[in-house]
Amino acid sequence: MGFTSIPIRNIIREAVARGGIIVDVRDRDEFLEGHIPMAVNIPFELIEAGEYTLPKSKYLLVYCAHGVSSMKAALIMSEDGYRVINTVGGLAQYKTAIEQIYNPQKGQEMSRVELIAPCHFGLESVLKKEILDLGYEIVQVEDGRITFAGDESAIARANIFIRTAERIMLKCGSFKAATFDELFEGAKAIAWEKYLTRDAKFWVSKATSNKSALFSPSDIQSIVKKAMVERLKQTYRVSWFTEDGASYPVRVFIFKDIVTIALDTSGVSLHKRGYRKLVGKAPISETLASALIMLSPWHRDRVLVDPFCGSGTFPIEAAMIGAHIAPGMDREFTAQEWSKICDKKIWYNAVDEAHDLIDHDVKMNIQGYDLDGDMVKCAMENARAAGVEQHIHFQQRDVKDLRNPKKYGFIITNPPYGERLEEKEALPELYRTIGESYRNLDDWSMFLITSYTDAEKYIGRKADRNRKIYNGMIKSYFYQFMGPKPPKRRREEA
Questions:
Q1: Residues above pLDDT 90, as percent of the chain
Q2: DSSP character at residue 485
Q3: 352 and 236 share one domain
C-alpha cells in the first residue's frame, strides 16, 4: 500500500475533515516538550518494531520534527494495512503556520475570549498540558487556576474535552477595587449587554476574597449584582427584568484588591460526567482521578489495576482516556443557551468532533477490585453508564489476593485514609498488605493517593516521587513507586 502527503499546515483541518488521528512519531520527551493539538504519541522506534495498535478504520496523519521520520513511519504503517497521510514538513513548519490554522483570514473570524479553568491545587501542570493540547494560548498560571485564550469555540471544546478542570469560566473583566464604590463602578463598566440577553436570569453564585480590603462574600455578591442591573437598565431601557430566560451564574474573585469577574459556562461542576449515579464512601472525584492517571506513565497497552476501586472512578476514567472518550460529550452546560456568546452550531461541532475521536477498536486490560461486593456492583453499573464496561473487569477481591501474571503493569488507587478512629487502627496492617502485594507483582509500578502519613513506612519502600495534592479539603500525597520500563523490541525483518 502507498500513502498520500499533505502540507503540515493542513494537518488539523484534514484530521477533523476525515475524522482521522494525528500521530506524532517523535520520542516521548520531545512530544512532552510540545506537540500539535490532539496528537497521540507513538515513537518511531515502536512503529519500526511493530509495537503499536491503532484503529484501521481511521486515517492516520503522521508527522515528526522535520519530515524525515514521518515518511519512514508512513511507509511502514501503510505496509501494515493502515490508511496513512504523511505531512510534508515538521513541527517547526507547523508552528510557523499556526496563526493561519487557528485564525483563517477568509470569512468572519471568531472573537477572542479569555477563559478561566480552576483545578485541584498541585495539578496545574496537568491542566496546562490539556489546554495546550487543545491548541489554546496560556495567559496566566496561578495556584489552582489557569487562564487561557481562544476563539468562541473554545468555550464548548474546553467544557467537552478537558478532564482535569473543575469548570470553565468566561472572563468578563478585571479591575482594582479597595472600596465598595470602586467595586460597583468597576462591575458596572463591564459591557454586560455583550453577554446577557434582556430576559437573562443572572446572579452572583460565588464570591471569594484573599488578601484584600473587601472581604465579605455576601456584600460583594450584592454590590456586583446591583452594578449589573444598573448597566443593563441603561442598555435595555427598562426598570425591571423578568429573569425568566437562560441562566448566567456570575463568579467574583478578589486577590490583593484585583477583582476578576467571570461567567460560569459549565453550570454543574465538570467532575459530574454523568455516569456516576452510585458512589461509595470517600469517593475520589472524576477530575482528580483523571489528573492522577495522566501524571503517571500509564498507557492503554499496559495493565492497570485498582485494588480499592469503590464506585470505579479510576478504572472508568482510565478506560475513557484510553478510548479517547471526551468526558463532557454526554452532559449539558449552562453556556449552551447563551445566544449572544456562542452559537449552538459550535456545540454541535464540538460534540461531533468528540464522537469522531472515539477509538472503538481499542483493546485494554483494566481491572477494578473491592472487598465490598455491593461496591463492585455499583462500579459495574457506573462503567455501563460511561460506555466502557467492555474495557474493565470488576471483581470482589481483597488486596492481599492481588495477583497478575503480566509484567510492567500499574496499580493506581485511592486506599482508605482512616478518617475515623477505628479505621486508623487498621491502617498499619492494611498498608503493610499493600506493600506485600505490590512486591509480588513482577516489575510493576504503583501510584496511590492517601493522607496517611506513615504510608511509605508500612508499604516498606520509600516512594520514588511524591506530590502534595488536596483531595477536597484533605491534604494528601500522591506516592509514585516506579517500576522498570518494558524492554524495546525490534521489528522483525520481512
A1: 66
A2: P
A3: no
